[in-house]
Amino acid sequence: MSPAEPSPISQSIPTALTRLLGIRYPIVGAPMFLVTTPRLVAAVSEAGGLGAVPSLNYRKGEDLRAALREVRGLTSAPYAVNLIVNRSNPYREEHARICLEEGVPVYVTSLGSPESLISDAHRNGAKVLCDVVDLGYALKVQDLGADGVVAVGAGAGGHAGRTIPTVLVPYLKSRVAIPVLAAGGIADGRGMLAMMALGADGVYVGTRFIASEEAEVGEGYKKAVLASGPEDILYTARPTGTHANFIRTPYLDKLGTELTWWERALYRSPATKRWAKTLRMLTISRAMRGSAQGGGKAWKDIWSAGQSVGLIEEIKPAGAIVRDMIAEYESALRELPRPVP
Ligand SMILES: Cc1cc2nc3c(=O)[nH]c(=O)nc-3n(C[C@H](O)[C@H](O)[C@H](O)COP(=O)(O)O)c2cc1C
């Protein structure tokens, strides 16, 4: 075999997650607002993982429907849709209805109660994974009938938890009966192996796929992912009202990372919390749309990404990212314990 040829990988890596979802590898391409395209979703699913469409990308329900049909036109493998189920998402009911009509096979819910979605999805024969950042919420969604939980640890791109994945994953795994996916900081097969060793049934990978050929974001965003290290990632609630990770840019420096006293008061009070966060999300999403697509003003750049930026050195097709992750996972597994040189 020539050195350029990729090493052969197993046809499948069966776990409780792959069995649940009918996929070959326990890798989910996490949904990323403004980054994940139908092509990216289809490429991950076609490579044996599970791609996930972030429904928030689409303001009009019919655009979401067209995106789902585009995915299905590119692959016959299972895929997922992410629904933000809290009340600050004004599209949640319309989007859920369209997904049910389109027969979406897997849902990933975040931020809010998935109760009604779980029963509707199950009636439709679909599975539901729920994002959680702590044990209380994991137990709650399990009681509601969730089929699996995504343990979103510290360092993840987007809205991230505060507990490091090496603690969160085994902590949840030993306390819930449903499959647990590990999220936060996984960008290669070594990270995947570590999470599986901790008990994860699969991994949920976002930031790595920003630097994929199928992510339709501006070159500036991809270059920032390649050039940044974990020390360039700021964990702040200032842009969206909920704590999330962002790449440090001049715009974020100007915005600041601390909430003002009046934001703290608005987000805390039950009377104002919901509309204050909705308003914040709507304003910031306009700025985020402009900077994700590139071509905007550099001083306005605001880009979300997690600490795994430090592990990403190359833009690759999404299918190659999945295959390379499996190849690295398998070689890292063979190499353990590493001999002393
Ligand atoms: C740019 C970006 C956008 C994201 N958008 C969403 C979203 O719309 N919905 C959601 O549930 N999670 C979103 N996330 C979180 C991811 O789905 C996932 O939890 C996270 O990326 C996993 O951690 P990692 O980035 O360290 O791999 C986003 C993450 C990033 C980096």
Terminus-to-terminus distance: 26 Å
Order of helical and strand elements: HEHEHEHEHEHEEHEHEHEEHHHH
User: What's the overall average pLDDT, rounded?
Assistant: 91
Number of structural domains: 2
- The number of helical segments is 13
Compute the gyration radius: what is it?
19 Å
Question: Which ligands accompany this protein?
Answer: flavin mononucleotide
Overall, the morphology is: globular
Per CATH, the superfamily of the largest domain is Aldolase class I
Placed side by side, the strands forming the largest sheet appear as: 1-2-3-4-5-6-8-9
| Uncertain residue segments | none
Structural class: alpha/beta
Strand percentage, roughly?
A: 5-15%
At the first level of CATH, the class of the largest domain is: Alpha Beta
What is the CATH topology descriptor of the largest domain?
A: TIM Barrel
Specify the biggest β-sheet.
8 strands, parallel, barrel
Which key phrases capture this entry?
2 domains, alpha/beta, 11 strands, binds flavin mononucleotide, 8-stranded parallel beta barrel, TIM Barrel, single chain, 3-stranded antiparallel sheet, 341 residues
Structure description:
The chain is an alpha/beta fold. Helix 2 packs parallel to helix 3, helix 3 packs parallel to helix 4 and helix 11 crosses helix 12. The protein has 2 domains: 220 residues, Aldolase class I (TIM Barrel); 90 residues, no CATH class. An 8-stranded parallel β-barrel has the order 1-2-3-4-5-6-8-9, surrounded by 6 helices. It has a 3-stranded antiparallel beta sheet with strand order 7-11-10, with no helix packed on it. The protein contains 13 helices and 11 strands. Strand 2, helix 3 and strand 3 form a beta-alpha-beta unit. It binds flavin mononucleotide. Flavin mononucleotide binds next to strand 9. Flavin mononucleotide (FMN) binds next to strand 9.
